[in-house]
Amino acid sequence: MSNSLVQPVAAPLRRGAMLIRGLRRLGLGFALVVVAILLATATGESSIALDTVLKTLANQLLGTTYELDAIDRGIIWEYRLSRAIVAASCGAALAVCGLILQSLLRNVLVDPYILGISAGASAGAVAVAIAGMGAGVLSMSAGAFLGAVLSFALVVGLARMTGQIILAGIAGAQLFHALSSLMITKSANAEAARGIMFWMLGNLSGVRWDDVALAVPVAVGGVLVAGLYTRALDAFTFGSQSAAALGIAVTRVKVLLIALTALMTAVMVSMVGSIGFVGLVIPHAARYLVGVRHAVLLPASAVMGAVFLVLSDILSRVVVPGQVLPIGVVTALIGAPAFALILIRGARTP
Amino acid sequence: MICARNLHYRLKRKALVQDVSFELQDGEVLGLIGPNGSGKSTLLRMLSGIFRPSAGQVLLQGRCLSQWPRHEIAQHMAFVEQQAETHERIRVRDAVELGRTPWLSLLNPWSAQDDAIVGQAMDALNVGHLSQRIWHSLSGGERQRVHLARALAQQPQLLLLDEPTNHLDIQNQLTILRLVDELPVSIIIALHDLNQAMRCDRLLLMHEGRVFALGPPARVLTPDNIREAFGVNSRLLHDPETGQPNLVFTD
């Protein structure tokens, strides 16, 4: 085909404008996440004025010397801020994992939780932390990663035999949750105090700055790596064979992105347990807002996942006075009806 | 252009394609015909590099396909499946833009030229007016035309088409075939309708995974070949007005 008729219409200008628009949107997304985190830092059992929050942050980050109550400072800096940042990282990572799985498997009803990857990661983390497997050699995150990969392999194997990936995922999730419960119940280890509920529903209590140092690089790095594959993910729109025909090295891309998903899920689960529905619902909401092109959809999912989980965490702390709900309860209360809506809509459109 | 050398494909010890060899000339339209399960689709997938042959080679411009990087193969040939579907609410324009995938990279981002190529491909397949439509709102014929436009946006020298007229009504079948005829590229097209196959330059008749006959339509579509491969009797009639040959079948 000849391109002689084609006029190169101000290509550099257009590309520059697109870049600026993209950066502006990214900036907006980042600002939204920051606002959500600040909100989370100010809200809780004892409400702290935003002014105090900002002064505390200024003292810690900019070296200012505002006079502040030591307890407020402790709550804000040691407790709420680290927790909110980990929540944001988890939300972004889980949403992006869900998006990748939905695109690669071409199924809008999958995410790390439904496919049993989170349960596998839980079981792996529990095996290391509580049952003491691979003690000294494996970290909890590494154990979680092995558990995640194992459960995914099992679920995919079962799905290949039956053609039912969702049911295979449910079977896998049940199996690995049961294994976790068994290991926790059998041991009288101090770690067991975190309990079965923690690993099944997720919980952000007990999160500290150590966790931030792991969660943020994994979430940001994971989203950036996934960002290199947005075009490849687009190419899966019409299936694997179509992607191959479009020049995608299908096996390599699938292995790499699924390993990335397992890694991100595993790191998050080993810190906060398995939180459901974020990876399932957020990509749908993002598609609804920004369309199906992954170059936009992926960062949008990351931002929305981050904001969603931070807001869910706030809810989990204020909904029942004097009690903190496991965050998985909140995400499920929002996510399950959304899941139902997706099912209903899927049944209506051919 | 492309050359198949003793291609074999086995799946679970069952031979789906056996010892297929042929060479396609530049600009040629080769029709693949044969009964269901004769190995047409499998052969097309080997030629496109989606399936790796169990034995034998595919040579693209003299070089073995397995030595080509995936995206370079896609710059040379495009493959349109029988009915590729999606659950995504993708717009027609976006679906056609997917065809630029093999040409893009981090260092080669989307440019005005890509826009222009996509526009031309959409015009060539007469889907420009559907640009903003959502995939699910399209008819079968429109979807197939969008797939062809996407393939064309790859700027291939070779198009591999797997029964592109399947499940379409007669008007859409003829439209697709006419559009395909007009494309300035080499084409290998799997077809079910033997009368439609007559417009190809050459035909490759497959039977039980093997090449049963290869040559110009008049030499391949003989009553003997058709009886042996398809198990039906046929007669060749000529249109009283145009003189065009036409097959009629009886069992």
Automatic annotation (TrEMBL), chain A:
Gene Ontology biological process terms, A to Z: siderophore-iron import into cell
Pfam families registered for this protein in UniProt: FecCD
Protein name per UniProt: Iron complex transport system permease protein
Topology with respect to the bilayer: Multi-pass membrane protein
SUPFAM superfamilies for the chain: ABC transporter involved in vitamin B12 uptake, BtuC (SSF81345)
GO MF terms held by the record: transmembrane transporter activity
Organism: Thiopseudomonas denitrificans
InterPro entries registered for this protein in UniProt: ABC_BtuC-like (IPR037294), ABC_transptr_permease_BtuC (IPR000522)
UniProtKB/TrEMBL annotation, chain B:
The keyword Nucleotide-binding appears for this protein: yes
Gene Ontology MF, one: ATP binding
Signal found in the keyword field: no
Keywords on record: ATP-binding, Nucleotide-binding, Translocase, Transport
Start and end residues of each ABC transporter domain: 2-233
Pfam families for the chain: ABC_tran
InterPro entries xref list: AAA+_ATPase, ABC_transporter-like_ATP-bd, P-loop_NTPase
PANTHER family linked: HEMIN IMPORT ATP-BINDING PROTEIN HMUV (PTHR42794:SF1)
Function: Part of the ABC transporter complex HmuTUV involved in hemin import. Responsible for energy coupling to the transport system.
UniProt similarity note: Belongs to the ABC transporter superfamily.
Protein name from the UniProt record: Iron complex transport system ATP-binding protein
